[in-house]
Design goal:
By secondary structure, the protein is an alpha+beta fold. It is built from 4 helices and 15 strands. The strands form 4 sheets. A 5-stranded antiparallel β-sheet has the order 8-7-9-14-15. Strands 1, 2, 4 and 5 form a 4-stranded antiparallel β-sheet that branches. A hairpin with a 6-residue loop joins strand 11 and strand 12. Helix 1 runs antiparallel to helix 2 and helix 3 packs antiparallel against helix 4. The radius of gyration is 18 Å and the shape is globular.
Length: about 260
């Protein structure tokens, strides 16, 4: 009897394939930086989308999101109580104090990069700033767990512990959004396995050298519960509390975790 051993490990890539994914990821990083620079009061989320698409196409890549299951744009622009999958529009105009989460993907030579970050428009209130900081810290904790021999839920547990550590540091509770999380990635944007942002350690397929996951915690200032708007895409918090979303595509290497979606300084 032959067993499928690949299912026992998180899918992995060769060193050359990781370099190819890093090239795609670098384009995503440049697009995100360009979007943040353009995100000022009076600018529409559609204009941000145009900025990202221009950067991606000028680099010889293709936006991962545009046309994906019918999604109409090159970025997800999720403002304030929108958690993920916000559709950019000409009517949505940024204002001072908005909290904006931008998710972006690019395909280069058949390989995907996927990354997200949250930032404020102008001056934002301290609670929103700390929410973004907490989400980034949770992501970094998950990245640190991308080590050979760990199991999938060791990463989930690390993300959860990162959130709890941020709660202790900030003196408040954060909601870990239920039902959404990270994923495998390679020649397709979304691959198995699904990566939860909380849970018990020591379960699921093993990480090996070359395993790649998109790590993406989503936190809120209140609820863990969400709903999808009538556009069938935009995910919002049920209580209207603000949300943040950070993501990097990360590989396991012999020398430690490798972020494949680095952003220019």
């Amino acid at each position: 009897m032959v067993f499928n051993r690949k299912k026992k490990v998180v899918p992995f890539r060769t060193a050359g394939e990781l370099d190819a994914m890093a090239a795609a990821g670098a384009i995503v990083g440049r697009a995100l930086v360009a979007v943040r620079a353009a995100a000022k009061p009076g600018v529409s989320t559609l204009e941000l989308d145009e900025v990202a698409e221009q950067v991606i196409r000028d680099a010889g890549a293709v936006p991962s999101f545009k046309g994906y299951h019918g999604f109409p744009a090159s970025i997800c622009a999720s403002v304030n109580d929108r958690v993920v999958h916000g559709i950019p529009t000409a009517e949505e105009i940024l204002t001072e104090g908005d909290l904006v989460s931008i998710d972006c993907g690019a395909i280069l030579d058949g390989w995907h990069g996927d990354s997200a970050w949250t930032f404020g428009v102008g001056t934002i209130i301290e609670a929103d700033r700390l929410l973004s900081v907490a989400t980034e810290l949770s992501m970094e904790a998950g990245i640190a767990a991308m080590l050979p021999g760990n199991r999938l839920t060791d990463v989930s547990h690390a993300i959860e512990l990162g959130t709890r550590a941020a709660e202790q540091e900030h003196g408040r509770a954060y909601g870990i959004v239920d039902g959404y999380g990270g994923h495998g990635i390679g020649r397709e944007m979304h691959l198995d396995p699904f990566l939860a942002n909380e849970g018990e350690p020591g379960k699921g397929p093993k990480l090996v050298v070359g395993s790649v996951l998109a790590i993406e915690p989503m936190l809120t200032l209140g609820t863990t519960q969400t709903k999808v708007l009538d556009d069938d895409w935009t995910v919002v918090t049920v209580d209207g509390s603000r949300a943040a979303h950070w993501e990097h595509t990360v590989a396991v290497t012999e020398d430690g975790p490798r972020i494949l979606t680095l952003r220019p300084e």
